[in-house]
TrEMBL record:
Belongs to the EamA transporter family. Keywords: Membrane, Transmembrane, Transmembrane helix. InterPro entries: EamA_dom (IPR000620), EmrE-like (IPR037185). The lineage of its organism: Bacteria, Bacillati, Actinomycetota, Actinomycetes, Kitasatosporales. Coiled coil: none annotated. Pfam families: EamA. This is DMT family transporter. The chain crosses the membrane at residues 25-43, 49-70, 82-101, 107-127, 139-158, 164-184, 196-221, 227-245, 257-277, 283-300. It comes from Streptacidiphilus monticola. It comes from the Bacteria. The keyword Membrane applies. Residues 26-154, 166-300 form the EamA domain.
Amino acid sequence: MAATAQASAPPQAHPDLRAVPRIEFLLLALAVGGVALSAPLISATAAPALAIAFWRNCMATGVLTPLALLRHRAELRAMTRRSVRLSLAAGGFLAVHFALWLPSLRLTSVATSTALCTITPLWTTLVLRLRGHRPPRTVWLGIVVAFAGVLLLTGVDLTLSSRALLGDVLALGAGMAASGYFLLGSEVRRTVSTTAYTTVCYATTAVLLLVACLASGQALGGYSATAWWQIVALTVSAQFLGHSLSNRVVKALGPSFVSTAILMETPGAALIAAVWLGQLPPVAVYPAVGMILTGLLLIVRAGRK
């Protein structure tokens, strides 16, 4: 979801990290902190979930559009029909992702929802396999471990309540939608800058979420000042700070290192939720989350080959 970084030459898969300036690691730490803060912020904001998703994308579009019109107007006009269609479709997947994930945070714990939603690499790997790609054996091992963690985690929530289990299902669906968004976006960004692409994508997402809010009767205003500031903080921390900085440092640190670091979103979000919101999941949740993270780590590390 990188918002402002420009398309550039493909980053090195295995750069010499000893030669990378320390500022790159600091920026990556800020990026991880930004995305980790998003789930607790959403859970704490006293506003309808779909409305939060709409305003997050609406604000991001409002910031991106002037930049795109000033610096990328010619590129926007030159986008092929295929690129436009794929960008619109990616925006649709992103809208589904937000529409499922944000409500899940109100039904189950931040730790559980975040862990189930971040298994996007698993779904992406399966889709690529259906398209003819042959991942290494380690990737399949990672898929098995991650799926076992998912089964254990949903089983724990089933013993708690049907409400928590529904939150799990929504989070899983959100992860699937995110994989569609990432696959389509990666195809568009072969020929289109990130700013031009995300302007079209985020605008599409905002429009679809607005329609969903109006259709479901969710209030788009009347929130407290605290809620509005939390929505602004969410937009800055996740939409811009987290994802933009991730895209900023990937050239220097490499996609494998950055992808592995981003997996820290789950324990980071769980820690913030525990300290800030007092959410302490059952003890059985922790080994399940650990299995999911281990499986994803195997997928990411093996996928770089």
